[in-house]
Design a protein that fits this description.
The protein is α/β, with parallel strands linked by helices and about 290 residues long. The protein has 11 helices and 13 strands. α3 packs antiparallel against α4 and α10 crosses α11. The longest helix has 14 residues.
Length: about 290
């Protein structure tokens, strides 16, 4: 079954990037000239997603405004003949059918996903974490959707991380199927050293069957006292099996100050408007380091 719906959890407070996120949602922090959330939505659209639900929280109205039209600004740009700017301002509102819902209590990622039940219905759906921008020629979520269509099982996007970092993420029990696709039979969130199953961890993307909602209904709070989506996916992996895709693309953690700087720097180098000038600047700057 083709995946056409996506959910983007974007209700976190962004405490790791304070004070910037005090008044600006971290998902609206720019990577050169577009906010992080737009890169995530564009990735979903490139993968064939047509309907997107963004889960927000109080104080995040800027996300809704960004994916809306702005008649006064558009009229001024049109009357000034600034057609390229006009197209760039209108583009976010034209990407897909975009909906919003508030997570009134931030009780974990699993709790956020539960709020998408009526939007999803009885269909598989993609989840793109609001903190994770993944940039590459082949959209990462599209690689996961292809695996779902091939195997009919829930899919996690995964990467190998260091032994030091794995305890901050999740650890997966995997066995190779073909190319960059693996069978996933177990997982543990924030494992202790003696619980590490492998150095593969879920990073930023998954595709889930609608059965995940019934599992979330009885998933108890886990790490941090929150309802963890990983705990629900673990039940799915153990009882039905899941698939893992070691996706192609570069992931940037936009909930992390260094990740924001890395994304800005690397995207700027490829940007058609500022790339050449920024590259020349970095070369001169490097001489002083």
């Amino acid at each position: 079954m083709k995946v056409t719906k996506a959910v983007i959890p974007a209700a976190g407070l962004g405490t790791r990037v304070l004070p910037a996120s005090k008044s600006i949602p971290k998902e609206m922090l720019p990577i050169v000239d577009k906010p992080a959330i737009q890169y995530i939505v564009e990735e979903a659209v490139r993968a064939g997603i047509t309907d997107i639900l963004i889960i927000t929280n109080r104080g995040k109205g800027a996300l809704e405004d960004h994916f809306d039209y702005y008649p006064e600004l558009e009229e001024r740009l049109a009357s000034s003949g600034k057609n390229d700017m006009l197209r760039s301002v209108r583009a976010p509102a034209q990407l897909a059918n975009i909906y919003f819902i508030r997570q009134k209590q931030t009780l974990g990622l699993g709790h956020a996903i539960k709020s998408a039940r009526s939007f999803v219905g009885n269909e598989p759906f993609a989840v793109l974490y609001g903190d994770d921008v993944i940039i590459g020629d082949n959209p990462a979520i599209g690689q996961l959707c292809a695996a779902y269509e091939e195997y009919g099982l829930g899919v996690v996007g995964m990467k190998e991380v260091t032994a030091e970092a794995i305890t901050k993420y999740s650890s997966l029990a995997v066995s190779p199927l073909h190319d960059r696709i693996y069978s996933v039979t177990n997982m543990v969130e924030k494992p202790r050293p003696d619980e590490i199953l492998s150095l593969f961890s879920i990073l930023g993307r998954c595709v889930l069957p609608p059965e995940i909602f019934d599992i979330l209904d009885h998933t108890a709070p886990g790490a941090g006292g929150e309802i963890q989506l990983t705990d629900a996916m673990k039940e799915l992996a153990v009882t039905r099996g899941m698939t893992g895709v070691d996706f192609e693309g570069t992931r940037y953690d936009m909930g992390n100050k260094l990740g924001i700087l890395q994304a800005t720097c690397e995207v700027a180098l490829r940007h058609p408007e500022v790339g050449d000038g920024f590259r020349a600047y970095l070369k001169e700057l490097a001489k002083t380091l």
